[in-house]
Every structure is written in C-alpha cells, then in structure tokens.
Amino acid sequence: MNLRQVVLDTETTGLSAEDGHRIVEIGCIEIVNRRLTGRSLHLYLNPERDIDAGALAVHGLTLERLQSEPRFGDVADRVIGFLADAEVLIHNAPFDVGFLDAELARLQRPRFQSLVAGVVDTLAMARELHPGKRNSLDALCERYAISNAHRKLHGALLDAELLADVYLAMTRGQDSLEIAIGDGGEGVGVLPGEQWPPAGLRVAAASAEELAEHAATLAAIGREAKGQALWSRLEGVEAPQAGAGGQVDFV
C-alpha cells in the first residue's frame, strides 16, 4: 500500500480569509512511503487586491510583482489534481484550509477537505509531542537540527520543503514499523539466507480475543488522531472516519 502525502503551504495578502484576503503563493512537496519523490508544485498568484503591510513584511511579495501571475481560478484544477489522492500535511492547517476554502467557494467548488484524502495539522502534532514549547516552523527546525539559514523571508515552497523535513524527523520512530511489515517480506535485521524465525524459537500466534482487542485499540487510536493509526494504514485496515461527512475536525 503506497501512502502518498503532500506537504502544503500558502502565503496570503493578510491574516483573515473572512475579510477577503487572498492566496498569493502555493507550495507543495510530495512524499510517498515517507520518501521525498522530488515532485513539487509551486505557483504565484495574482490576488486581485492590495497586500497588507504585515503580510508584505513576512513574504516580500508585492502586488506589482504578482500582477502578471495567474489567478487562483486559472490554476484551481492544477492544484486539485496534484493534491487529489493525497493526505495533505499543513502547519497550522485551519489557516491554510480556510483560505483554500474561500478561494474554492468563489469558484463554486466543494470545500478543500472533500477534495483530498485527508488533512493533518503538523502544528497540532508538534504541540502533542512538545507540550509547553515553541512549535513554530523555525523552532522545529532548530529542535530537529534542520538548517533554515536560507529562510530570510517566508516562501510557500521553501516552507513546504522545511516542513517535509520536520515532519519526517518528528515521525522518524515509525520507520522501523514500516520496514518490519513492508512488502519486502524480510524481517528487520535478517540477512539474506538466514532462517526466520530461527530454529527452536517458539512463535505464539495471537488468539481471536487478542486480535479483537488489537483492532479495538487501533480504532481508538484512529478516533483520537482523527484519522488512521499507522498500523491500520500499512495493513490496509479501514478505520473510522473523523468527524461528520468524513471531514477532519480541528480543535
């Protein structure tokens, strides 16, 4: 089973989509089975409105610079096509999803979360892993020894690249699990030609009661995580969907 994820970031004209602010840049980085594929999507957009001074100080994109760029409606199909079957990873997801929903609503398109396989808020994930600590992208880069010295201004593609590295570092403990039950058929630490299990080693199979308890535990983890437990994904086991209508609920 291939797990396709896309790290997404946007830059905007201001802080509130409800006040009519627009997206000026979109950056996406593809990850398949926890490996960067080299595929990306990077677009600048003409927002058709002024850019707040605070936003300009963050990303440095002026309206004059963006006048010749396409409008969101011109590239909507391209964006949706790149993201369609992916679990989308976003730092502070409610912010970006709110802007994407507003852009899609102008085109009378469905809401963003109905167009993708799921949304993961990496900020919420980081807060659970590091409670009481700073969990901005810069803070996480420092914590996981990921160089961001070239990040003088925010940029959607640059920030998506950094977040991809941060996400893989935050979830690195899952690597051994993926290797252990991957498609290769060889156990961890087993050299070619070695017998597995070793002769004389007794292997106890789980009982039906234990398997049922295991399934119940995975379902509980899925509900808590508002998605699927990693083991369920790798086994291809269906987990309960989070929220009404299959949408992820943000807290």
Please tell me about this protein's structure.
- With 251 residues, the chain is of the alpha/beta class.
- 39% of the residues lie in helices and 15% in strands.
- The longest helix has 18 residues, at 208-225.
- The model is unreliable at 175-194 and 237-251 (pLDDT under 50).
- The radius of gyration is 21 Å and the shape is globular.
- The protein has a five-stranded mixed beta sheet.
- It has two domains: 4-177, 2-Layer Sandwich (Nucleotidyltransferase, domain 5); 189-241, no CATH class.
- It has ten helices and five strands.
- The protein has helices spanning 53-59, 63-66, 72-83, 93-106, 122-129, 137-143, 156-170, 175-180, 208-225, 230-235; strands at residues 4-12, 23-32, 35-44, 87-90, 118-121.
Provide the fold topology.
Elements: E1 4-12, E2 23-32, E3 35-44, H1 53-59, H2 63-66, H3 72-83, E4 87-90, H4 93-106, E5 118-121, H5 122-129, H6 137-143, H7 156-170, H8 175-180, H9 208-225, H10 230-235
Parallel strand pairs: 1-4, 4-5
Antiparallel strand pairs: 1-2, 2-3
